[in-house]
Each structure stands twice: as structure tokens, then as C-alpha cells.
Design brief:
By secondary structure, the protein is mainly beta. The protein contains one helix and five strands; from the N terminus they run E-E-E-E-E-H. The relative contact order is 0.20.
């Protein structure tokens, strides 16, 4: 099994993330963000060559501060 490193950057209305292979040096696998946490949440994840995940929640359906992390852990 290959180890990975998850890096999170939490802002006031977004959560950005990167996933790296635990190599020497670490190699970026994918990155993305969930923004609009309190208004119209949108998720987008990209590898080096393609979009690998997308989701949009209904407008007026905030996912709040804990929702993005729960979503990422379930998605990953």
C-alpha cells in the first residue's frame, strides 16, 4: 500500500486541498477545493491531466465548516 499526504488549507468560505504521494520528494497526485461553503458550495478536484471529481450543492444549502472535511474523507 502506498502512503499519501493530505494537505488542507481552510479559509473562511473555502477549503483547498492537495494530495501527495509519500515519495522522496513528495509527488502531487491531485488538488482542488470546495468553495462557497455558506452559499452555493462547489467541489472540484484535478489531477495533472484531468478533472477527477466535481459536485455542486443546491444554492442555499450550506455545508458549513465541518461538511467539507467529511465530504473529502468520504470521497477519497
Amino acid at each position: 500500500m502506498t502512503s499519501a499526504i493530505l494537505v488542507l488549507n481552510a479559509g473562511s468560505s473555502s477549503l483547498k486541498f492537495s494530495v501527495f504521494l509519500d515519495d522522496e520528494p513528495p509527488r502531487l497526485l491531485l488538488g482542488g477545493q470546495i468553495d462557497g461553503l455558506f452559499t452555493h458550495p462547489r467541489f472540484l478536484a484535478r489531477s495533472a491531466s484531468a478533472v477527477v471529481g466535481e459536485r455542486t450543492w443546491d444554492a442555499g444549502t450550506p455545508i458549513g465548516p465541518a461538511g467539507p472535511i467529511e465530504f473529502l474523507l468520504a470521497w477519497g
